[in-house]
Fold each of these.
Amino acid sequence: MESGAGRLVVWRDRCRGCRSCQLACSFRKTGEYNPSGSAIVLERDLATEKTAPMIRALSCDLCGGRPACVEACTYGALTFELLPRIEVRY
Amino acid sequence: MRAGTDKTWFVDLTAGKSWVEESPLDEVAPYLGGSGYGWRLLADRLPARVDPLGPENIVVLNPGVLVGTRTVGASKLTAITKFPTVASADRRFFVGSCTSGGRYFALGLRQAGCDRLVLLGKAPRPVVLAIRDGGVAIEDASHLWGKGIDEVSRHLVKQEGPDAGVLVIGTGGEKLVRNALAIIDRTNSLGRGGLGAVLGSKNVKAIVARGTGGIRVADPARYDALSTELVSRVAAWPRRAHWIKLGLAAGWDTFKHTQNPGMWPKERWDDLYGEAKRMESLRSVIACTSCPLSCRLRWEIPGGQFGGETGLGSPYSKSATSGQLLGIEDDRKMIHLVTQANSLTGIDFYTTTRIIDFLTRMAEEGRIPRRQGDVDLSRGYETVERLFRMTADREGIGDVIADGWYRVEEEFGLDPQDYWYAGVCKGIDFIYDARPSRFHPLMMTFLTRPRPHHGGSHTRTNSRNKTLEEFREQVAHWGLSAETLERIFTAAPYTGKFNVGRYTSHMEDMMQVKNALGICTIYTYQALVFGDDMARLYSAAVGEEVGPGELIRRGERISNVAKVLNVREGFTRLDDRAPDVWFRPMNTPEGTIEMEDYFQTKVLTREDVERMLDDYYDERGWTRELGIPTPEALEGLGLADLIDGSGKTRTETGRQR
């Protein structure tokens, strides 16, 4: 059984650097497209031009359970996993 | 385009001053903004017949109107300038546009509030232009002059921060190699034909762009919903998985037929340069801004003389074709030359390798002396590498190569029309040949565009094995009338199944729309984004309801402005001439290839192509005789103020070659 609460999972290796997550995040928050105004920072390794999204935890409210960044990422670099409401452990 | 205005940032490099001019939307909208309005600004400000490498030349850099939004492929920047490629025996130069995607640069310009950057004059010493929120700084670049593209790019990004976009020229641009281009964000090239040399002539080593502003659209909810729909469409594309795995390394199975120079058996080419070979060096695929189909590549040369060397861009197609032409079997050596071009010198790989191929073969056949100064023109990699370097440095015979095909003609008495692969038009060699490729519309646009390169004009017709119905459907999405469709898709004895001449005029107008909006051409190439999609996006972005028919009409207006600028420079139909080599059979180990139409219904003659050119000009309402806009055509597009200029030039250029 799921609670509606969940966690944002960052798959660093899958990122291609398209910045759609930043644009979608800022649009959801402000109605403008603005990477600088998003809760996501894009790390950039100049040796390889590999990028990876980094979430600024204090700025991110998970969009109330439907994160815009997850919907925008077509590379699967950001996913949202619902957390179970009841978990049985042994 | 924000809040109904369009801001052009001007930099007077001579005076060291900059200022911003705001244009109201009703002045900009007829040209769509972006590069469309950039063309108009240039038409109003660039004097005719200036030296492209002199301070009077102007560079206009235009991020697309939709750049910085979440629309698929909205990453593109278009540069417009007078190019320094010598385009005719009497030394005329075309005013052309070139486009490139990117990851940070175009977005950085827009975030800083710069919808367009215009460079005037010449800086007294090497400079970097730093575009930041609200202003431009002209900073000394003496310490960067003489350094390679990648070194300077990394230096500037480290200095400005990871979000900084960079446009950098190489050592070839500094030395005014006429084909030199610029590299954006390390991964994307911009401006074969000499944008890099123009920037070099202005002492502009680099431009760095970074801002923190947001991109607003007029109707956010509608716009974002449209963007979401397009993302879903692209995500569901059946070929996407293959595409994102290989990027521009994909497509060998078609490429080996369409871009085959015909020197080697195809099996041998497969072994030496095919997909398996590509996979040995491909390391990662990188996306431009807002692109769910990534295509930029990072490679690492596996072993050999250049083992461990890494590079960014797109090395495979160009190295495969030039490798075969030059008879170089080790793909790693050719990839090394691409790396040198992209990360150090910025010289154009195609033109430089083609001229080297021409000269070394002519030396082999005894048409020119094998000994040139202290260089032995014997065929082989060592000669190619040496000439490649000498071209970038303008050293010895490299100075001739650096000046292009007409200088080769002057120095050696060799006719560029004798070059055997793809051919030369307006001083530029074509990246591929109309015989193995067949005469599809892109080949025609190589003739009719001011700058003979595709410039982002791909449509469905660039893929093989498509149907006429697919072509018709794609064009129908642009809101063209039933009569227009009838003209395009009615076969004549000289056309094959559809009229490439008439089609091409509209394809070029679509290109102007894509370039102005900043949508990557891959999305029309693969039939994923259509004209009516762009009309909806544009309407929601700027707040003016525009249908696809009106959108392409504005594209036509831009095409006409571009043409008028080139009529002023003395270009006419005589320059839109198909290379001689297209009409000679290409002998390959698998047999002879002649230039056929797309559907292979007939072998095309020069007369056939000339008749399709007739139709191209007729479709545009231009004169068939000279291929230039009539006063009526310009008046109909609201360009009456350009008539005087074109009328005058028309009489000046009524000469025969």
Amino acid sequence: MTTAAAAHTPSTYPIDRIRADFPALAQQVRGKPLVYLDNAASAQKPHQVIDTLAEFYRHDFANIHRSVHTLGERATARYEAARETVRRFLNARRAEEIVFVRGTTEAINLVAQSWGRANLKAGDEILITAMEHHSNIVPWQLVCRQTGARLRVAPMNTRGELLLEELAKRIGPRTRLVSVVHMSNALGTVNPVEEIVALAHARGIPVLIDGAQAVPHLPVDVQALDCDFYAFSGHKLYGPTGIGALYARHELLEAMPPWQGGGEMIRTVTFEETTYNDPPFKFEAGTPAIAEAVGLAAAIDYLEAIGWEAIAAHEHDLLEYATARAEEVPGLRLIGTAREKGAILSFTVDRVHPHDLGTFLDHYGIAVRAGHHCTMPVMDFFQVPATARASFGIYNTRQEVDLLIDALKEIIEVFG
Amino acid sequence: MLDDLRDLYQEVVFDHNRNPRNFRKMEDADRTVEGHNPLCGDRITLYLKFDDGRIADVSFQGQGCAISTASASLMTEIVKGKTLEEAEHLFEAFHQIVTGRDDDLKLEELGKLAVLAGVRQYPSRIKCATLPWHSLEAALKGEEQPVSTE
């Protein structure tokens, strides 16, 4: 970080201290300082998370909920404290409304298989949007095949903005669930989820929100949103892989059947009959990702200490700056120009395929994503095979945006 | 240009990417094969015309990165006029070179194609180079199903 670049960020934002918290950032890639702009795929981890994992394994690790010994009790306390941290993070009413899962994908599959199979009949409809990640498409296709329900899709405009009136038109007498992405991973679009929930609830229809991209960038309050399900992953939130959470209203979780059988989720088992544990344990079969849950709580604590307002202001500044500078790059086309947008710059460049861009940028030490971003229908809509995507996080700087733009200009020259 | 990229992105690659050879639809092809790399979205349609056990004509269309476009373009140049056996042999040789399994293989045998040997340093890009060849292999074997690198 040079002081000149730091001067552009809001003066109170502790960028130098934040960057120092992330050991992975302090390395060279192909002889250049790493510029990590692949945060929408997965974010790097601060030492507070790494140390928490290591310390937990060094001192407190044991299996949870069934051991009477000291370590078992310690580990159980840490795991349940992590659940309370996630509850606070989402402002859920009760900790029992937080189910630990592997990530957003598993959360949506859980809802599709448990709630979906119990509530969907032939001819019923699930309504999603045109900008969903495959993980908010395929689980519904699976349950549609099992139940005879139909998947319907609300369209977007060429800026990548959801057409709310079109979504409203598609809410009909057979609609059973609306499942929408909070922030698009391929476009950066932030959807008006409060309005969507209000529209659906006016017809008595529950709403699931895929929050995988949203939670690292903006504060989420499930009571204010009034949503019925909210899913997110820990690894995009500067936390460990293999852990995420599903928020669901308690009455929904109570009524939903288990989706995986095994230990932890039962109350009594005989060969004739099994009775199930209460939520959330009913949905956490087997030994969960204990240390990862504790690590996730450390990540949430870390972000809350920086503050969501500061994070949002910093990332908004980066997005504005990067969007403005992208205009200088000849032949660059932004994919996703929604008015409400998170810190994601998805783009194509004339005559240079995104994969070539990705390989070249790597030689400048710059990590971006190139591909379809698990949103093939979005690529089809914009009639591109793939895009390059720079996605920003709490530790990125204007100086890094400059490095990206300068590198792009050089690469375009080479390809002629 | 960055020196360490020159191993892969040689002038031949840029040339064939800018001006791909045999880049056209073939209306009277004996065999047409679709190739797809779902990882990056690259698509290729390969057209072949046979005459007396030889590849009389070959062309391709599609959209892809510089590596896959250059690989397809170079491939059409080298296999045109070859017998099916010779083409099969080239497929094997090319595959070994880009996957780095046989360092002793004579690169001269592959002519200009040898420029793509550098792709072995980029594991995530090998499929870009092999997609056209897998499509050719499928065409030679008479497979009608679309080819996928996954």
